[in-house]
Amino acid sequence: MTSQRRPDSSSLAEVLDRILDKGVVIDIWARVSVVGIELLTVEARVVIASVDTFLHYAKEIAKIERATTEGDLEDLEELEIELRPESSPVSAG
Amino acid sequence: MTHRYVYGIVERDGNGRTFDLETTPVGEGDEVYTIAHRRFAAVVSDIETTDPERTDEDATRHDEVLRELVEGSKGDDAQTVIPMRFGMVFESDRALKNVLRGAGPAFRRTMREIDGCVELGVKLVRETDAEVDTEEIEQAVAERLEPLAESSVANDRFSDRLVVNRSYLVSREEREAFDTAVADLEAAHDTLLVQYAGPYAPYNFVDIQVGAV
Question: Does position A62 have pLDDT exceeding 70, yes or no?
């Protein structure tokens, strides 16, 4: 018979490690008001790995900024930034 | 005034869908339900304050709501959830939908990465006087667990007895195989204590910040 371990969910320390330090964070102003604010989304785990990658994302961010300025949120939602294994993307919206 | 406490983001499943959960929600509301905008929906419950205190009780509730979502509960299928940090309260549904729209591309990318997965934590702790070959153990753990995980991250080794501390992103199909692999590692290393924690919503595989300018 193959033995198994069941994961244990009872550790408060494990929970606090996660829910107080990690997960999606949304600025208070984005949570309390809508009028006159623009949202900026950052995927922070993303580390810019090379100049090439940086230029790639800089171009994408420029597209986003253009869409934001023109108020064209439909376009913004269709925008795709592909992940590369050696790097991480940054997006703004 | 009533606000919305947000636990996480799921793919759209209708507006106002209610989950039938065992856990008591954070805040005053009795129900955990969704508020959707196009493709994504926030899983929320009602709360009176916009700045909830971080009590152990509410932290546990937040975690348990998410666990019931990612595990599936009584009448509900397991969900893929992008988890929120504790305390994300939205003053209005409008502000919430504005974020669902504005951060949509980031949610979409993240959802693609974590689809069908939960997070499991594995810590290997050496017994007080045991001498162990850290490199060899790291390699054994990697060989056994990495093939079963979509991804993994190293967490802080805050004690010198902590030989391995990693979080794994594991698809539901590999859960049982992963349980077996952890048991095998434990059996193979009798000077090591294995702490196997979870399942959690994939906190270590999500890193989105939404600012306002």
Answer: no
> Residue A88 and residue B110: Cα distance in Å, rounded?
12
Instruction: Kindly give, in sequence order, each residue whose CB lies less than 8 Å from that of residue B137, ignoring residues fewer than 6 positions away.
Output: B124, B163, B164, B189, B192
Subunit contact B197:A7, Cβ cutoff 8 A? yes
Q: Which amino acid is at B6?
A: V
Where in B12-103 does DSSP place strands (E)? 18-19, 32-37, 40-47, 82-83, 89-90
Flag whether the ipTM exceeds 0.85. Answer: yes
Q: Are strands B162-171 and B40-47 parallel, antiparallel or unpaired?
A: unpaired
Residue from the list B56, B183, B210 with its beta carbon closest to the beta carbon of A41: B210
Residue A79's pLDDT band (boundaries 50, 70, 90)? very low
- Whether residues B92 and B160 share a domain: the answer is no
CATH of the domain at B153: 3.30.70.260
Closest CA to B206 of B65, B66, B82: B82
For residue B24, tell me if it sits in a domain: yes
Q: Which residue from A79, A55, A57 is spatially nearest to A67, judged by alpha carbons?
A: A79
